[in-house]
Amino acid sequence: MTVIVQKFGGTSVADIARIKAAALLVKKELDRGNQVVVVVSAMAGTTDKLANYSLSAFAYGKKREFDVVLAAGEQITSGLLALALQEIGINSQSWLGWQLPIITDSNFNNSKIKNINTKPLKDCLDANIVPVIAGFQGVYQNEITTLGRGGSDTTAVAITAALKADRCDIYTDVVGVMTADPRIVVKARKIDEVTYEEMLEMASNGAKVLHSRAVEIAIKYNIKLQILSSFIDEPGTQLITERKNMEEHLVTGITYAADESKILLRNIPNLPGHASVIFAPLKHANVNIDMIVQNAKSGDKAVDLTFTVPKAQVETSLNCLRNLKLPWFSDDNIFVDNDIAKISVIGVGMKTHSGVAQKMFQVLAEKGINIDVVSTSEIKISVLIDAQYMELAVRSLHTAYGLDSIDGENTTLGNK
To answer: What is the DSSP letter of 43?
Structure first.
C-alpha cells in the first residue's frame, strides 16, 4: 500500500476546530486506500508562548530545561489529533520523540536527527492504526531535545525517508509556495512547481513555508514532497528535480529575512589565519553564519570583516569574540547593526540568463535603497539593506521581474 506522511503546521492545528478539520484530511487520504503517518507542530503561537515563559523568567537556565518546556506544545497537539481521529472512527495512537525513539545529537535547542526507529510506526500501520507523531522533538541519552524552529518539517521529511514512504504532504495556511510573502505583496501568486534547489535557497533566505533542513533531507533521499493548504481544497506546490523549460524561466521568487544582524569587525590584521581564528569559536557555539564579506586592498595592513548571524545569536557571537582575547581586538572595533533586512532574488533561470544582478541593483537604486552587502550563488542574489526599506524592496523587485502576473516579463532580461 502507498504510505503518505502528512505534516500539519501550527495554523492547521491552531484550535480544536482546526484539529478536527485536520483529522478529516487524514480520513480523506485513508479513504483513497493509502496508509497515513501524521506529524504535528504545536498549536499556533504555543512555542513562542512557552519560549517567552522560559526566557522572561529564567533567561540563564540550562538549555536542557528549555527543551523540556518547548517540547510540550507538540505533545499536546499529537494527543488532541489522535483523539480527533478516534472520534470519527479511526484507530489512532500518539507518539512522542522519545517513545519511538527519534535519536538526535546533544545540541539542545537545535539538535540534528541521527536515527529513527521505525518499527513502532510499521507495527501501527500493519495494525491499521494511524500514528500521530509529535514533531520538533527527539531524545539524546534519555534527555528530551528539540530540533530548532521549523523542526516539525524536519521531523516529517526525516520520517518519510526512514519509512521509505511514497510521499510527504506539508499542510500549512497558504495554498503552496508563493512568489513572495502575500502579506507584503498582494499580487504574489502560487508556484505550481519549484525545484528542490530553488526551494532550498528560498527556505534558507527567509521563506517560512518549509524549513531548509527539511529540504536538505528531501534532496538527499529523493523524497516526493508537496506543500498544500489545509483550508482550501486545491493543488499545492510540487517539488521537482529540474524544470523542463529552464531557458524560459528566470526568477521564481523574492524572499526576505528580517531576523538577522550584521556584525562588523574593523582593523583586523591582514594576515593568513585570522578569519579561521575568528570563526572557530562561533562554529563551536553553533552560531549560524550567513553572509561574509571581507574588505581589503592589496598591501593593506588591516581589513574589515562583515558577517551576519541570527538576531538571537548576537550576544553569543559577541561573547565568543571577546573571549578570544586577541591583542588587536576590543569592543571599539566591533559594530552591530540590528536594523537590516536581507532581500533575495531566486531562480534556476539565472544559470542561463545574464543581467539579473544588474536589474536588481537598478531597481533598488531607483527607489533610493542603498545596498550594504551582496552575496550570490548560481541561482540566488542576496543583498543587505536598511530594514525600513524591506517591504518596498520586495514589492518593487516582484514587479520588476514580472512576477505580478503569470504572463509577465519573467522570461527574458538581457544586459539592460
So the answer is: P
More confident residue, 54 or 98: 98
Which residues, including other chains, have CB under 8 Å from residue 141's CB and lie 6 or more apart? Answer: 106
pLDDT tens-digit readout, 199-230: 999 998 888 889 999 999 999 999 999 999 99
Residue at 340 is within a domain: yes
- Helix H, strand E, coil C: the string for 91-105 is CEEEECCCCCCEEEC
- Under a CB-based contact definition with an 8 Å cutoff, are residues 386 and 371 in contact? no
Structural domains of the chain, count: 2
Do 161 and 277 share a domain, yes or no?
A: no
Q: Alpha-carbon distance 58 to 61, whole Å?
A: 5
Last residue of a domain, one of 173, 206, 221: 173
Distance CA(25)–CA(115), nearest Å, equals 28
For 83-96, what is the mean pLDDT? 98
Last residue of a domain, which of 150, 173, 196?
173
Whether 109 is covered by a domain: the verdict is yes
Distances (CA, A) of 199 to 10, 17, 250, 337, 396: 21, 31, 15, 28, 22
Cβ 352 vs Cβ 253: under 8 Å? no
Strands 35-40 and 130-134: parallel
> DSSP string spanning 340-383?
EEEEEEE-GGGGT-S-HHHHHHHHHHHTTPPP-EEEEETTEEEE
Angle at 141 between CA 36 and CA 312, to 5 degrees: 80
281 and 389 assigned to the same domain: yes
Q: Which candidate, 416, 344, 414, places its Cα nearest to that of 381?
A: 344
The span from the CA of 337 to the CA of 260, in Å, is 9
- Tell me the CATH number at 102: 3.40.1160.10
Question: pTM for the complete prediction?
Answer: 0.86
Domain containing 65 equals: 3-173
* Amino acid sitting at position 311: K
- CB burial class (10 A; 0-12, 13-18, 19+) of residue 184? middle
Three cell numbers written together for 264: 562588523
